[in-house]
């Protein structure tokens, strides 16, 4: 198959990582892959580093018909079979371009668990042959709350290459490089520093544990628009020496291997890669019960779930993890077994191939 992905976002969080993993995985299976994105997108750099050809478009907004016309010409020139759009702006531009170019298959991958509203002003949602939800919770919301036809929405959870996702350095070396010893309790968060991730809530939970756990440190791997606000809030809570901003990191497996637990404090999620990755390495996880997180974490079995926006419950769950390392270790091991069985990269690629192949065959039959 000849597949082109579109992405408007300049960031590099879980959504962009899934796109990159899918592009690389499908290319390894013999498919031809392209990416259409903006010049400043971090995904563009990662794709080009991986040898995936990119098309640079302005993608100025949903009504950027010039970008749509240019993309449509490229789709015809490259004889693209499948167009897969991802964010809001590129789903408008890519969807219109795919229909102008008469590309056989148009997919829209929905990574977030926020609602999409169908209507004549949002006709873009009627364009895709299928909407790919990154988990059953996302699919259920689109169908039950947003009115999308059940047959139009399929769930393909984000898969992780567990064989390749391994720490390159040992725990002690990574900790020493960060300035910590084995006696320090390291709580890791991985993700873009933006409001929906609710890092401010995590700081409130940490402050509640400050006296009881004097060795507890919060490590934030990721960058984003809330960096300064989070730093100021940490200072105001008296946590400036216990909250550590690492910025964007390419050594996430090393950081997970060095941590004692992972925290997810989001108010909305699809199926978060950081949680899947952490569980895949056997790391205990405390996470909010939102979106597709319960697909990964069965409370008290493969991890701990807490209500969103509840710093007190979050602090209590974290205290349980750090107070009983043996129990937490067993929790992590059960999490590892669960995600290896159900959330692998091969499972995601298999489902994606089947979907595209079925739609292409249907398109070919319809065209006869």
Name some characteristics of this structure.
Glyco_trans_4-like_N, 368 residues, Glycosyltransferase family 1 protein, alpha/beta, Rossmann fold, elongated, 13 strands
Summarize the SSE layout with pairings.
Layout: E1 2-7, H1 14-28, E2 32-37, H2 42-49, E3 54-56, H3 65-78, E4 82-85, H4 88-101, E5 105-110, E6 130-133, H5 136-144, E7 153-155, H6 171-178, E8 185-190, H7 199-209, E9 216-221, H8 227-236, E10 243-247, H9 252-258, E11 261-264, H10 273-280, E12 285-288, H11 293-296, E13 304-306, H12 311-323, H13 325-342, H14 345-367
Parallel strand pairs: 1-2, 1-4, 2-3, 4-5, 5-6, 6-7, 8-9, 8-11, 9-10, 11-12, 12-13
Helix pairs in contact: 1-14, 3-4, 6-9, 7-12, 10-13
Give a verbal description of the structure:
A seven-stranded parallel beta sheet has the order 3-2-1-4-5-6-7, with helices on both faces. The protein has 14 helices and 13 strands. Helix 8 (227-236) links the parallel strand 9 and strand 10 (243-247). It has two domains: 2-159 and 345-367, Glycogen Phosphorylase B (Rossmann fold); 171-342, Glycogen Phosphorylase B (Rossmann fold, 3-Layer(aba) Sandwich). With 368 residues, it is an alpha/beta fold.
